[in-house]
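Discussion board: Methods & Data

I've been asked by a reviewer to show the raw model output for two of the constructs in my manuscript, not just the figures. I'm not sure how much to include, so I'm pasting the format here to get opinions. Each protein appears as its amino acid sequence followed by a line of discrete structure tokens. Is this the kind of thing reviewers expect to see in a supplement, or should I convert it first? Here is construct A:
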Amino acid sequence: MQLSVNFENTRGTDHGSGPVQVGWFLNTQKGGVIYDPPTRVRSADINRKHAKSASRCPAVINLESRYFAVKCPFDIHIGFTRDKDGKPVLRNLAGEASPIRASKLGQKLHITNEVEWRYPDVPTIQLELPYVFIADEPVYMSQVAPFMHYAKDPLPGTIFGGRFPINVWPRPLMWAFEWHDTTKPIKVSRGDPLFYATFETLPQDRSVVMSEAEVTPELTDYMELISGAVNYVNQTFSLFEAAEARRPEALLKPIKRKSGG
């Protein structure tokens, strides 16, 4: 089997047929019950009665089938301010009504160092998440804004997404957000989509099947091998080939859940 981090390197080789198997798992089980499985995006309140309804359009169906929503695990209602020393800090605007303790929120959600912001006066905040995606063949995952979900109160900024090969670089995701209008709060409710994950496959017309993956000793060891590399190397993409050379041939083992009675 050839995994390859570059699609170009796989030309002329045999690719799998049928759907591409993508696995997901949580890299920590502590409080894991609050994290919902990624769900395929589907139109809500769809109208299928009319033959020309957009919900019956093959192009719409094909587009939606390629996106999986990752939902917010708890209510977030925060504001931006600076302390007496001018340091940027977050304010929990929910106060005593907040369902999450301030200490726990601070462990999960934080502002990045101001010198690392991409634009002056545009803070970047990060919500740490335990979601990891894995595949045993060349698959690139892109993390994008949930553009097919309507928000009554739009967020005051933009999602900071990314694209990387999950077959050689499975890593915990985070929700990164650039806060362009800090006079407005960030409010996200539990169950709202934080972002979409979409997957590039070979050939491109193959569908994606998502399943929860078993955290095997081999997968744990491989994750340990690549974890924390960003703390030591500026361009982690340069490590993809080195990681691929040390990757076991198979890491994805879907969990078989018992069916309900």
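Construct B, same format:
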Amino acid sequence: MPHALAYAIDGPTGRFSRTTIERREPGPTEVLFDVTHAGICHSDIHTARGEWGPATYPLVPGHELAGVVREVGAQVTKFSVGDRVGVGCFVDSCGTCDSCRAGEEQFCDGPGGTVWTYNATGRDGLPTAGGYSTCITVEQDYVCSIPDAIELANAAPLLCAGITMYSPLKRWGAGPGKRVAIVGMGGLGHMGVQIAAAMGAEVAVISQTRSKEADGRRFGASEYHAISEPGTLRSLRKRFDLIVSTVSGAQDLNGLIGCLRTGGALVDVGLPEHPVTLSLSGLVGQRRVLAGSQIGGIAETQEMLDFCAEHGLAAEIELIGGEDINDAYDRVVASDVRYRFVIDTSTF
């Protein structure tokens, strides 16, 4: 069996340390690829620290993987050795339920459901291990092609952050003539600004402070608003067709809903840890929509990668080594990263 060097954490209060894990030999329709880069998503931190419920330890997180194909199964038709590829938040699904047939494998409700890239049970009956490792074996239908125009290090975060923003922006009609606001300017938000601008929308950032205003405008925003300044949300009432909130902490949902035009939509992708309070009158009175969004299916993820390549978009990153993961987690929680940490697995 192929072996991979990896970084694992042994409990919710533990620290990452280097280890070796086994990967399965690629089956007839599977791809084994060398992971060159892995992004650190805040959901990795929530899972590793047990903040979203029990996890299986030792845990190797990472669902933003980019690398190069090393070996393919005898029946693989989609990829060849040497291809540049990526894997996102899931590595398998039933393939036959309504969601899978619709290309929305992330919502699989068949036997076993969606198989997440880590902290799940794989087709071999073993716990899945993610991208903080030097290689991985995945069924070809859950692998995406990374265009040559995007560096692998900058492509890795697109497999989660990129598709998390692209999917709701596309679904809710971001484009010419539409005013779009992105709430939060972190790993998700900085991609949302770029993508919405490339789609042709008029883009605004709503952030806690103005500390990232120059970056927001560089990414394509024409407006930048700071919630810490009194009266900001009142000044934006009925301004936007679409608001996408990336914030996982406490936020004024009622105030944001008030910033929507009649019939506008507020889409949350930040998954706040605690329940929120909502007044329905702000929705009913103006036919507004409150929605949630997750990632995207494989076809939509590939579409997003091709869109980013066509428009010259990529994640802005800080490249780190495996020994820096513990510190990086603390810095993400402190919002001290611009805008995504990416692990260089050659340091393993």
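Answer (T.O., handling editor elsewhere):
This is acceptable in a supplement if you add a one-line summary per construct. For B, something like: The radius of gyration is 20 Å.
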